[in-house]
């Protein structure tokens, strides 16, 4: 596997801890330029794009792991060699800003893994690391989730897509969000005020981007402040998504919270929002 930095600079201590854990089980390479820094980016666009392309082109690389999220992948994702990934699929692993890469994999019909970045593995405990390995090595046995909360009842079945709401919103503005018919949409976010969550969901609804979605499952919305108007993010999610008229459940342990269970994006899932269950088919 190869670790790349497609987005922001990162905490090097956590990064090396995460890489050290991966190296106990896999042959791990760190892409050239991974430790670079250009302002709020982990190196120039060309350096980060070259690292991504080289990982996609190298037949010896079976998985591409993000160093961290942050910001920056959207600047380069549309230029990468996704045609190569379509012909020779391999894992793309990460979350948060890595949502931009997951969306490009979706466009060429390749599944990807919404899971901890290398830095997150550096912070994670033995249970989090075991979940990561299971998701990477045994994707066909992705664990079902029970006990989700119902926002709007009903059942839905379709490919699981999504990730970070802010990145999805930005990708839609850039014309890079492609929603398959019947998709089950997964959403999470961090440090966004509730009115900004409302703005993004409203814009996605008005644009028609959510018309093909058959159901929604919500992960963590971490540190999403009710300020300055005192409206909790839970109320925004319930109102904006409930009006779609499709099943909606929340409570998936994925995103920027304490737990970030691996999710197989692109694979078909069954969502029973009434019963609070999500299963991979």
What does this protein look like?
- With 281 residues, the chain is α/β, with parallel strands linked by helices.
- 32% of the residues lie in helices and 21% in strands.
- The chain has two domains: 2-141, Rossmann fold, CATH 3.40.50.10740; 149-280, Glucose Oxidase, domain 1.
- The chain has helices at 12-23, 45-57, 82-87, 99-107, 118-123, 126-137, 165-173, 194-207, 233-242; strands spanning 2-4, 29-30, 63-66, 91-94, 112-114, 149-152, 155-164, 184-190, 215-222, 248-250, 263-265, 268-272, 277-280.
- The strands form two sheets. Strands 6-10-9-8-7-12-13 form a seven-stranded mixed β-sheet. It has a six-stranded mixed β-sheet with strand order 2-1-3-4-5-11, covered by helices on one side.
- Strand 3 (63-66), helix 3 and strand 4 form a beta-alpha-beta unit.
- The chain is globular.
- The relative contact order is 0.15.
- The model has no long low-confidence stretch (mean pLDDT 97).
Q: What key phrases describe this protein's structure?
A:
281 residues, alpha/beta, Rossmann fold, Glucose Oxidase, domain 1, 6-stranded mixed β-sheet, 13 strands, 32% helix, 21% strand
Largest sheet: 7 strands, mixed
Write the H/E string, N to C. Answer: EHEHEHEHEHHEEHEHEHEEEE
Rg is: 18 Å
Low-confidence stretches: none
What's the total helix number?
A: 9
CATH class of the largest domain: Alpha Beta
Number of strands: 13
CATH superfamily of the largest domain: Murein tetrapeptidase LD-carboxypeptidase, N-terminal domain
Major β-sheet strand ordering: 6-10-9-8-7-12-13
Structural class: alpha/beta
CATH fold descriptor of the largest domain = Rossmann fold
End-to-end span in angstroms?
A: 27 Å
Helical amount: 25-40%
Gross morphology is globular
> What's the mean pLDDT score?
97
Tell me what portion of residues adopts beta-strand conformation: 15-25%
CATH architecture of the largest domain: 3-Layer(aba) Sandwich
């Amino acid at each position: 596997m190869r670790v790349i930095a497609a987005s922001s600079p990162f905490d090097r201590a956590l990064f090396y801890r995460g890489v050290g854990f991966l190296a106990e089980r896999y042959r791990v390479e760190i892409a050239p330029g991974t430790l670079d820094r250009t302002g709020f980016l982990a190196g120039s666009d060309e350096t980060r794009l070259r690292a991504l392309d080289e990982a996609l082109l190298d037949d010896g690389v079976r998985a591409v792991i993000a160093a961290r999220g942050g910001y920056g992948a959207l600047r380069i994702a549309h230029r990468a060699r996704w045609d190569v990934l379509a012909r020779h699929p391999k894992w793309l692993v990460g979350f948060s800003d890595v949502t931009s890469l997951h969306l490009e994999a979706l466009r060429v019909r390749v599944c990807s893994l919404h899971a901890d970045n290398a830095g997150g593995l550096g912070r994670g405990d033995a249970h989090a690391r075991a979940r990561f390995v299971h998701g990477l090595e045994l994707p066909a046995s992705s664990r079902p989730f029970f006990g989700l909360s119902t926002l709007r009842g009903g059942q839905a079945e379709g490919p699981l897509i999504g990730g970070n709401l802010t990145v999805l919103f930005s990708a839609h503005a850039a014309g890079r969000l492609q929603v398959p018919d019947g998709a089950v949409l997964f959403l999470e976010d961090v440090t966004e005020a509730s009115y900004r969550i409302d703005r993004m969901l409203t814009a996605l609804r008005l644009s028609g981007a959510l018309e093909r979605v058959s159901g929604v499952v919500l992960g963590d919305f971490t540190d999403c402040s009710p300020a300055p108007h005192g409206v909790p993010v839970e109320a925004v999610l319930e109102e904006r998504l409930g009006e779609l008229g499709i099943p909606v459940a929340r409570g998936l342990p994925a995103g920027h919270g304490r737990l970030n269970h691996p999710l197989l994006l692109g694979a078909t899932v069954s969502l029973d929002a009434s019963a609070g269950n999500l299963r991979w088919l």
